[in-house]
Structure formats: C-alpha cells, structure tokens
Amino acid sequence: MSKPSKTINRFFEPLFNLFIWSSGADAKILDQVPTEKNKYYGIGGTIVFTALMASFAGGYAFNTAFKNPMLSVFFGLFWGALIFNLDRYIVSTFGVGDGKRTISRQELVEAAPRLAMAMILGFVIATPLELKLFEKEINAEISNQISIANNKIIESGENDPILTRLRTERTELNTNIQNRTRIIEEKRLAWVQADKDKNDEWNLGKFSGKRGKGGYYEDLKKKAEDAEADYNKVKAEYGALNSSDYDRIDNIDERIEERRQYTNVETQKQKTVQDQNDGLMARLKALDSLTSENSSLATAKWLITIMFIFIEIAPILFKMMTERGPYDDILDRIKYETKVKQMLIQSNLNEEINTQVKINSEKNEQKIQAEMAANNELMQQVLKAQTEVVEVAIENWKKEQKKIVKLNPELVIKTNNN
C-alpha cells in the first residue's frame, strides 16, 4: 500500500471507529471479519449524521424560542446527543431478522415499535429544519399576520365601548344645543320681523296707508312686544340649558381624551407584544397556514419530512434486509458461550448452595439429637430424684402411722372400718 493511502487511512481511522461504535457493533469481532466492516460503517454513519442534523434542528428551534445563541448551542449539542443515543439504542437492539435479503411480515411485526420510534424522531428532527428552509416565506406570513392583528387591535381601540358611549352622549348634547339655538334664532327673527312691521306702520303706514298711530299700529306694537318677550324668555331658558350642556361637553371631552390616551397605551402594549410574536409557536402556525394555502409548499414540506423519516428508519430496514454473515455467527457463538458459562456458574452455585444446605441440615440434626439425649438424661435424673423423695415420704408416713397405732389403736381400727 502506498504512503498516501496509509495517511488517508490513519486520518479516517478515528471516524471509522466512531461509526463502528455508533452502529452498536463489537469492534473486536469485526477485526476478525474485516469484510463485515463496511456494513456497519454505513449504519453508524447514518446514525452520526442524523444526530448532527438533529443538533442543528434543536439549536435552531431553541434559538427561535429563546433568542440566546450560547444556550442554543448547548441545547443543540444536548439534543443531538439524545437523538444519537436513541438511534443507537434502536439499531443495536435489533438483530439481523431472519437473515434473508427480503423483509418478512414477522420481521415487520418485530420491528414495528422501533420503526414507530424512528418515524416519530424523523418528524421531530424534520420540523425545525423545515422552519429554517422556509424561513423567508414564514417571516413574510408572520409579518402579514402581525399587520392584521395590529389593525384589529387599532380597530378595537377605536371601537372602545366607553369611548363610543361618550361620543354618543356628546353628539346628543350637541344636537340639543343646535336645536335650542335654532329655536332661539327663530324667536329672534320673529321678533325682528314684528318690530320691523311695527316701525314700517309708524313711519310709512305700510299696512293701513296712514303713518303714525293707525288702525294696525297698536296691534303690531303688541305683537312686537310679545315676540320680544317670547324671544327673551326662550333665550334665557335655552341659553342656561346650552351653557350647562357646554359644560357637560367640556367634561366629556376631557374624559374622551383620558380614555383615548389609555386606549392608545393599551393598544401600543398589545402591538408591542404582537410585534414580538415571532417565536417557535408563531412560526409553526405560520408554516401550517402556508401549507394549507399553498399546495406546492405543502408538497415540499412533506417530501422533507418523508426524507428524514426514511433516514431514521434506513438503518433498521438495512438490518432487516441484510443476510447473515460471519460477524453474526461469531456474535451468536459468543452469546451462546456466555450463556452456557453463566448457566454453568449458576449450576455450580446451586450445587454449592444445596451442599451447604445439606451440611447445615445434618449439623442441625446432630445438634437436635444431642439436645434430645441430654434432655433424656436430665429427665431420668429428675425421675430418680422424685422416686427417692417419694420413698422417703412413704417411710416417714409409715413411722408416723406406727406411732399413732401404738398410742391409740382403737382410733386406727375405727377409721379403717369407716
């Protein structure tokens, strides 16, 4: 082998070792069957690169939500490590199936839980990357949604019920003032016309044809005086009402201004919150809205999702379609040897335990026999002592009875007869 080839191999050797370890294969066994290494290079490489994509996706999603680059890097690494560990577990716990190139129904049933987990991971990894790939479209959609929301906020501020009520009340007061002012003006014009008719009659004889006090002058004078009195009365009464309404309008204007300032502040707060509504959930909603309106975008999104799902399940499918090789035979032999050794150890342990139990049982039996023998000897001694005590008691009783017979034989005879 040439020096460049050796240099390249040394350069990639740590990477290949990482792929082997990631695939869950036993490197020592693979050293015995080098032809099997390429298979596990592919499986391990898929797991490693999937974890890298998961790191990018997790970091982007975290940065979108929290706007913190340092924490996003940390979370991205953590998320990638988590996905890597799950993928490695899923692949390493699945064997080679039935050892054929085709996938049987039984293999699919056995792999169903792992395939389901892999599909879920594919969705999880694909979503943040889709957000990044369609970032421009999503930003435009979010801006549009924010603009619509802000317009609604402004409309709600303008249509504030308190402001509406105050404006309605102000309009009613203005209408009343205008109506009263119109009536006052009508009364004034009536008075002016009546006074003019009176003066024309006096100066020109307009109605009677004679100047001065004619037949109509007194009537016109009274009419002018009544019109003036009516005008002054209406002016005083309605003027007071108008003055009161003007004061109320000034008060309403102040309240309207205060309420408008309050609604402007609240509207600005809501607009500020809405303008900042570009986090992860907002982007997910925007993407959902875009895909529901744009079939091309929806197709692209699903193709990306399917691609990541396929990447996730590829190692499992690859294992299901892989024929048994020497690596699997050696691994099965090692597993069998380990199992037999463990069974032998367990058997020896059981035998030792049984022997120890038997020895302990015999010791306990001997101890019990010794205790029973000691108890029998003790009982014999107690019985002997009791016999001796009884004999002494009988002897003493016999002596007492002899004394009684000697002293009073008649009493003894009488007692026996009774």
UniProtKB/TrEMBL annotation:
<keyword id="KW-0175">Coiled coil</keyword>
<protein>
    <recommendedName>
        <fullName>DUF4407 domain-containing protein</fullName>
    </recommendedName>
</protein>
<keyword id="KW-0812">Transmembrane</keyword>
<feature type="transmembrane region" description="Helical">
    <location>
        <begin position="69"/>
        <end position="90"/>
    </location>
</feature>
<dbReference type="Pfam" id="PF14362">
    <property type="entry name" value="DUF4407"/>
</dbReference>
<dbReference type="InterPro" id="IPR025519">
    <property type="entry name" value="DUF4407"/>
</dbReference>
<feature type="transmembrane region" description="Helical">
    <location>
        <begin position="40"/>
        <end position="63"/>
    </location>
</feature>
<keyword id="KW-1133">Transmembrane helix</keyword>
<keyword id="KW-0472">Membrane</keyword>
<feature type="coiled-coil region">
    <location>
        <begin position="217"/>
        <end position="244"/>
    </location>
</feature>
